[in-house]
Every structure is written in structure tokens, then in C-alpha cells.
Amino acid sequence: MLKSNYSIKKLLDNNSNQNDIRRIKKILKDEKVREQLTLNELLKAKNSDETHIKKLNSYLLQIKTNISKLNFLLEKLNVQRKIPKLNISSLTQLRNENKSFL
Questions:
Q1: What span, in angstroms and rounded, lies between the C-alpha atoms of 47 and 2?
Q2: Residue from 53, 37, 34, 33 nearest 45 by CA
């Protein structure tokens, strides 16, 4: 019973990781498009073009937002990997190891 619960939890954690990885891939794909739009805008712009400046500013704000999203998702994935999975059997094993040490 414990093993199946652990397997389900592990599956859910993996699913959560997969969702985060999908989000990261989507954000990176969006950034590639935004990068191309920015390059196009830079190539066709004139120095005093007000709409050009507004578009570039908008792209930069979106890039900044996406960098924050990526940092959050990557940190979340990193934390999930570092936190050991807790279950009854592992806690019991730790307890027994501590007893044997004493």
C-alpha cells in the first residue's frame, strides 16, 4: 500500500515537472519569435520613430516578464529535485538508523 502511494506521488511529481518543462519550452519558443520581431523592428526603424520605440519597449517588457517566469519555473524544478521524498518507510528507516547510531 505504501509503495503504491509512493508511486502515485512520484508519478504526480513527475507530471508536475513535465508541466513545468512544457511551460519552459513554450516560453522559450515565444522568446524566439519575440527575438525575431525585435530584430525586424530594429532593421526597419528610423531613429525618431515613436511607434518603433514603443514596440521595442513592449518587447523588452515581455522579455523581462518571461525571464522572471523562467527563473521561477527553473527554481521550482531545482527545489523539487533537492527535497527528498518523504514517506513512512523512509522516515522509519531514518529512525532505525538513528537508534542504531545511539
A1: 67
A2: 53
- DSSP, collapsed to helix, strand or coil, labels residue 19 as helix
Is the pLDDT confidence value at 96 over 80? no
Per the model's pLDDT, the better-predicted residue between 80 and 64 turns out to be 64
Q: Is residue 1 predicted with pLDDT exceeding 50?
A: no
Evaluate whether residue 101 is within a structural domain.
no
Element (H, E) at 23: helix 2-44
Q: Does some domain include residue 55? A: no
Q: How far apart are CA 28 and CA 8, in angstroms?
A: 30
pLDDT of 6 > 60? The answer is no
**CA 73, CA 94: separation in Å to the nearest integer?**
31
pTM of the complete model: 0.49
Instruction: Report if residue 70 sits inside a domain.
Output: yes
Q: What is the Cα–Cα distance from 39 to 45, expressed in whole angstroms? A: 10
Amino acid letter for position 63: I
